[in-house]
Each structure stands twice: as structure tokens, then as C-alpha cells.
Specification:
Strand 4, helix 8 and strand 5 form a beta-alpha-beta unit. The chain is built from 11 helices and 5 strands.
Length: 304
Amino acid sequence: MNSRISRKVKLRCIELINNGNSVTDIAKLFDLSRKTIYKWLNRYQELGIEGLEDHSTRPQNSPGALSDHVIQQIISLRVKEKIGPARIALRLGLTHSSVYRTLCRQGLQYLQPKKPRKKPQRYEKTYPGELLHLDTKTLVPLRRGYPKEHQFAILDDYSREAFCRIYPAATTRAATDFLYLALEYYNYPVKAVLTDNAFCFSMRYAAHASRLTLFAQTCRDLGIRHYLLRPYHPETNGKVERFFRTIDDECYNRIRLRNSLHRSQVLDAFVQHYNFRRPHLSLKGLTPVQRRINYFNSVTDVLE
């Protein structure tokens, strides 16, 4: 039973004793020790109801406790000289642990208080095609000496419906070819696409920043807005990053891949499973294709 027992229970035990019940029976009834009940009884007889209040278990005397003067010295050294607990302990002839505990109690364990991390603002678009997330990932060579390959993935923000292809290089021509294939797959209007600042997508951080890559030109010509991530903010494109991790966990890490062709075939089969059969937790158990179909069905119903 919880060591913090209410005064009501204690009074009930005293009342039962006064009514002639044995301490042993009361101890069994409340799952207590006889010693505890006798302690309550003695306190009640000496102090009345006030004797049944919880008493602090903190010792009255603490021989090892630091004096107020020493605590102030620790605080002063920490604040003025910006030194750590080990050096403070040497200066004052104390143990490192006692100095550190004192600093923790005073909220001074960090020389520069840690700033709380900002939670990424989660968002979700309101219809398929409003925003597509596109990214690339360098794949580990399947055998020593094999060339690296690059996996392109695109994900619809609203439905999470995905499309993937593997290319031998992450060039702007490969990115453009992949964009055309993705638009053919989705087969509905796409308003915008979001990418990082890789050279296959953008010249934003190249020597000639004003030039457009073939990918950027294609987006412009197709009337698709091309959004770029802010530097050092990968969480903005977190949906496709999480999709890459899902591919690794649920596909690549479960199958022994023989060669590049086999890897491409395995990827295609998994993406098909992901879109059509795998329930998505962020979609309340719907598959991406189900969510896309539900949206267009609802729009059709409204128009009719």
C-alpha cells in the first residue's frame, strides 16, 4: 500500500480498535503491519487527530549538509568565474558530487541554459497535388567496386502516395526525367514541388546562382511552383525523409539484394504495397491510394 495513507483510513483503524477489534484483524483488513497501526494508536493517544498527520521523513540533523555560506561561495564562483563543479570543488575543498548537487538545486548546472528545441510545425495540404515532396538518397553499393546509385522519391503531401525510381547519378537530367515520370504516374494537376538545394534541383548556392537548372526550367515551363528548403531545416521535407527510412526498414533490410536490377524490382513492389495495401498511421489507417480516391469522390459528390 502507498506509504502516504490518508488520515481518514488512520481514523478508521483507531475507531475499529476502540470498538474492540484486534490489531491483527485490522492489519489484515487494510494490508498493514501491526507495528504501523500501533504507531498510529500511540500518536493518537498522545496528540489526538494532529498526531495522525504525515510526518516528514527528512532527518532533523544533516551533518554532511553544506552551510549557507559555502553554498553562496559555490554560486559566486559559478556565476562570476564561470568554472565547473570539479574546479569549484578543488577551490573550496569539497567533493565534486556535493558541488554538482548544489548547482543542480540552484539551476546552475549549465553555464549557458539550454534553449528549448522548437517543435517542428506539422502541416498537411488540403488536396492531392497541392504540394509534392521530392528528394534523393545515395544508395550503398551492393558489392565492393560497384558504382553508387541514387534513389529519387516523391510523395504527395495530402495522400502520402509515393513514386520512386533509381538512377545511376543524381544529375539535373535524371531529376527532370523523374519529374516527368512522377507527373505521368499521379495523373492529376500538380501545383507545387518542394526540394532541397542539391545541384540537380537548383543553382541557388552555385557560382552562378541566377541560372536555372534543367529541373527548375521544367517546373517553370509546366507551371509548377518550385519551393526550396531553408538551409539546415531538413524537417521541412520530413515526410519524404521518413519515407526513405520506411523503405530501408520494411524493404531493403528484409531482403538479400542480388544486383541493381533486383533492387529496382524490390523497390517497385514495395512502393506498390505502400500505396495500395499498407495502412498509414498518419491517415488514420487508410492507405495513400484510399485517401486520394476518397478526396476525389467527395469532390465529385459535391459537384453533382
